[in-house]
Specification:
The protein has about 300 residues and is α/β, with parallel strands linked by helices. It has one domain (about 5-10, about 30-40, about 55-270): Rossmann fold (3-Layer(aba) Sandwich), CATH 3.40.50.150. The chain is about 35% helix and about 20% strand. It contains ten helices and twelve strands. It has helices spanning about 5-15, 25-40, 55-70, 90-95, 110-120, 145, 170-180, 195-205, 255-265, 275-285; strands at about 1-5, 80, 100-105, 130-135, 155-160, 185-190, 210, 215-220, 240-245, 245-255, 290, 300. It has a six-stranded parallel β-sheet. Strands 7-8-9-10 form a four-stranded antiparallel β-sheet. Helix 3 (about 55-70) crosses helix 10. The relative contact order is 0.14.
Length: about 300
């Protein structure tokens, strides 16, 4: 196991001055806000019980990620886990036969929790694969300097974090460059993010600039009062997101899928599959149509 903390400390000071992979101080502030937010969260998965308001949502997300990873993973493969957080997906990679793992996250406290999970603390089994953990921004062009140069990967995963790259075009390009330069020929990049189409549709259906339920809330600011988003300016479309027991009023960004695909083509990455989570879940469950009731419980229609 290897924690490249010195690299993080060096780049963390750059965030305050000019920004990790950012063109200006505003973008640096966006990245630092994300880091500060996730550094402030405890390892909440340990305290989730059957009485949790989001247990069913979390289980749904874990099921979808497990299926996605399982469909694109082979035994003996190496994995680069961008925005690895507290290491919650390591068991999925273990089950897929991972032999070499590198986890990257901007939040140092999350990286330390991931190391604890890797080592099998809190009653868990330790992970059997070799691992390196790096505290850094996955949208930073300098990330390549932190990953050992001989390391390339069969699978690059970025779960529930691609949207953080869309604060600017420069950061989105840096993310895709970090993916492509480390991905082996024939390898896969598997990512997930909020569906921009659904967010915009629900915003337009809402009487104000926010919507949600007892478990989550999405708030757009007055800059988007028209609820129109010109195709020529697809970056930096921000909203605030809250999910009970998971995310506390964190800034995120819309990711128009056609824009992401067009950028990816610059790095010889071609889209193979894109699905909304609801459609994907129904597809994997034999076509049964499901609906999500208040509180996140899945109900069959």
């Amino acid at each position: 196991i290897n924690l490249m903390e010195a690299h993080f400390d060096r780049d963390f000071s750059r965030v305050r001055r000019s920004g990790l992979g950012c063109e200006n101080a505003g973008e640096a502030d966006d990245a630092q806000q994300v880091a500060s937010h996730y550094n402030s969260l405890s390892d909440r998965h340990r305290s989730l019980t059957s009485g949790s308001d989001i247990l069913h949502v979390r289980n749904l997300h874990n099921f979808i990620k497990a299926v996605l990873i399982g469909q694109h993973m082979q035994r003996g493969w190496s994995v680069l886990d961008l925005a690895c957080g507290k290491g919650g997906d390591m068991l999925k990679f273990k089950n897929g036969g991972c032999m070499q793992y590198v986890g990257v996250d901007i939040a140092m406290m999350s990286v330390r929790d991931a190391i604890s999970r890797y080592n099998g603390r809190s009653g868990r089994a330790s992970m059997p694969f070799a691992a390196t953990f790096i505290a850094a921004d996955f949208c930073d062009e300098a990330l390549g300097e932190a990953i050992p140069p001989q390391m390339h990967f069969h699978l690059v995963s970025c779960q529930f974090a691609v949207h953080y790259a869309f604060s600017s075009e420069a950061r989105a390009l840096a993310m895709l460059r970090n993916v492509s330069c480390r991905l082996l020929p024939g390898g896969f990049f598997v990512g997930s993010m909020p569906d921009a189409r659904v967010l915009v549709r629900r915003l337009r259906e809402a009487p104000e600039l926010e919507f949600g339920n007892s478990c989550y809330r999405v708030v757009f600011n007055e800059a988007h009062a028209s609820k129109r988003f010109p195709a020529g300016d697809p970056f930096g479309i921000a909203y605030r997101f809250t999910m009970t027991e998971a995310v506390d009023d964190c800034q995120e960004f819309l990711v128009p899928l056609p824009v992401l695909c067009k950028l990816a083509e610059q790095f010889d990455l071609a889209l193979e599959y894109a699905h909304n989570f609801t459609d994907f879940f129904c597809e994997q469950c034999g076509g049964h149509r499901m609906r999500v009731a208040e509180g996140g419980r899945l109900m069959r229609d």
